[in-house]
C-alpha cells in the first residue's frame, strides 16, 4: 500500500500499486497517479451515486458532510490572471470602484478557509461582466497569488481608497469573505449588546475590525448621491456595518436598528446597503452543497440569483438566497438519523440592512 499526497490540500491518501486514479477526501479533487501526481478538475457527474451525496460544509473552521442539493448547477472559478486590479496606492477612479477582500488564513490550519479564494474571483467576474466595472477599478486583497495581503492595516487603507474623493453618481462595492466574530459591546450602542467584527489575516496579533469602525470608515463619509453596496460573507455579519435600518424578511418591513446611546450611524447624505450572510447570532457556511468547489453559501446563492435574473430586485435576491439554503437543508431529511445528528444543517438567514428605508422591490443595480 502506497501513500499519495494531494497537491491541492496536502492530505495524504492511500493507494495500491494498481491504482491509476483516486479521489482526495480532503478537497474532493481527483488525482492521476503515475510518474507525477496531477490535480484534475472534479467531474461530479462521473461519481457513483452515493458519492455524489457526500459533500462538505465548512462552517468557518468546522467541517461537516451533508446532502448535496439538486437543481443547482456548478460554476467554475475564473482565471486569476483575468482581472488586473488596482493597488492601494493608486488614485481611486471616478464612477464605479470595488474593494474585494478574501481571507483564507492559510498560515494557520486552525482557521483556514477554502471557499474564500473562488468567492472573491467569482465576485470580480460578476462585477466586470454583468455590471461593467473596469478591471482597474477593482482592488483585491487576498492571501493568494500576488495580491496585497488582507492585513488589518491594508484593509483600513483600502477602506480609505474605496471612499476617497467619491462624488455624486459614484457606485462603490465592498465585499468580504472570511471569518467574523462578535464581542461584548462596551459603548452601549448595540441593541443586542454585542459588537460584530471581521477578522483580517493577522487578527491574532493586530486585532479585529469592529462594526463601529467599519461604519466610521466607509458609511459615514458617503456624500449625497454616492451609493455603497456591501456584501459580507462571514459569521455574525448581520449588522456588521451598524446600519440603522434592518429589513425583516419574514414580516416584509423595515425595522429600527438605531443605537440606544444615540450614536450617529448614518451617512453624510449618501446611501449604504448591506447584504449579510446571516444574523448577528448565526454562523455562515463554506460548503460544496451548491458546487463541486468550496464556496460561501451566501456568495454562491447571491451570484446565482443575480446572474439568472437580470432584473432581480433586492427582495428577490434575499428570497433566492433563503430558498436555496432552505432547499439544501431540506434535501438532507432523508439521510437518516445519524446524518441529521452528526452533520448539522446550514443555520443561516441572509440579511439586508440599509442607512435608510427604501423600496426592496426596486431593481438591484450596481
UniProtKB/TrEMBL annotation:
Origin organism is Coffea arabica
Residue span, Peptidase C14 caspase domain:
96-354
Q: What is this protein called?
A: Metacaspase-1-like
Which Pfam families does this chain map to?
A: Peptidase_C14
Q: Which family does it belong to?
A: Belongs to the peptidase C14B family.
What Gene3D superfamilies is this protein classified in?
3.40.50.12660
The protein's matches in InterPro entries, at most eight in alphabetical order, are given as: Caspase-like_dom_sf, Metacaspase, Pept_C14_caspase
Amino acid at each position: 500500500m502506497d501513500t499519495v499526497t494531494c497537491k491541492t490540500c496536502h492530505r495524504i491518501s492511500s493507494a495500491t500499486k494498481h491504482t491509476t486514479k483516486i479521489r482526495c477526501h480532503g478537497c474532493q479533487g481527483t488525482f492521476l497517479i503515475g510518474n507525477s501526481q496531477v490535480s484534475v478538475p472534479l467531474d461530479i457527474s462521473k461519481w457513483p451515486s452515493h458519492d455524489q451525496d457526500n459533500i462538505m460544509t465548512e462552517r468557518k473552521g468546522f467541517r461537516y458532510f451533508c446532502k448535496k442539493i439538486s437543481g443547482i448547477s456548478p460554476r467554475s472559478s475564473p482565471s486569476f490572471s483575468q482581472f488586473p486590479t488596482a493597488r492601494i496606492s493608486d488614485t481611486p477612479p471616478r464612477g464605479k470602484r470595488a474593494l474585494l477582500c478574501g481571507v483564507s488564513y492559510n498560515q494557520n490550519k486552525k482557521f483556514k478557509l477554502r471557499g474564500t479564494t473562488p468567492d472573491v474571483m467569482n465576485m470580480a467576474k460578476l462585477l466586470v461582466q454583468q455590471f461593467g466595472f473596469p478591471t482597474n477599478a477593482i482592488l483585491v486583497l487576498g492571501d493568494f497569488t500576488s495580491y496585497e495581503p488582507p492585513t488589518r492595516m491594508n484593509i483600513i487603507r483600502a477602506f480609505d481608497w474605496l471612499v476617497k474623493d467619491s462624488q455624486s453618481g459614484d457606485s462603490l462595492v465592498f465585499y468580504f469573505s472570511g471569518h467574523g466574530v462578535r464581542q461584548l459591546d462596551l459603548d452601549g450602542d448595540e441593541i443586542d449588546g454585542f459588537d460584530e467584527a471581521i477578522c483580517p489575516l493577522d487578527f491574532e496579533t493586530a486585532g479585529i475590525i469592529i462594526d463601529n469602525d467599519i461604519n466610521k470608515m466607509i458609511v459615514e463619509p458617503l456624500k449625497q448621491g454616492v451609493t455603497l453596496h456591501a456584501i459580507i460573507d462571514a459569521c455574525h455579519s448581520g449588522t456588521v456595518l451598524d446600519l440603522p435600518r434592518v429589513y425583516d424578511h419574514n414580516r416584509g418591513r423595515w425595522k429600527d436598528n438605531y443605537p440606544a446611546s444615540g450614536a450617529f450611524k448614518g451617512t453624510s447624505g449618501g446611501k449604504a446597503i448591506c447584504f449579510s450572510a446571516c444574523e448577528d447570532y448565526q454562523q455562515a457556511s463554506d460548503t460544496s452543497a451548491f458546487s463541486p468547489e468550496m464556496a460561501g453559501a451566501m456568495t454562491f446563492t447571491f451570484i446565482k440569483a443575480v446572474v439568472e435574473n437580470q432584473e432581480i430586485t433586492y427582495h428577490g435576491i434575499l428570497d433566492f438566497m433563503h430558498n436555496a439554503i432552505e432547499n439544501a437543508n431540506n434535501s438532507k431529511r432523508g439521510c437518516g438519523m445519524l446524518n441529521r445528528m452528526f452533520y448539522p444543517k446550514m443555520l443561516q438567514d441572509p440579511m439586508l440592512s440599509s442607512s435608510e428605508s427604501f423600496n426592496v422591490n426596486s431593481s438591484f443595480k450596481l
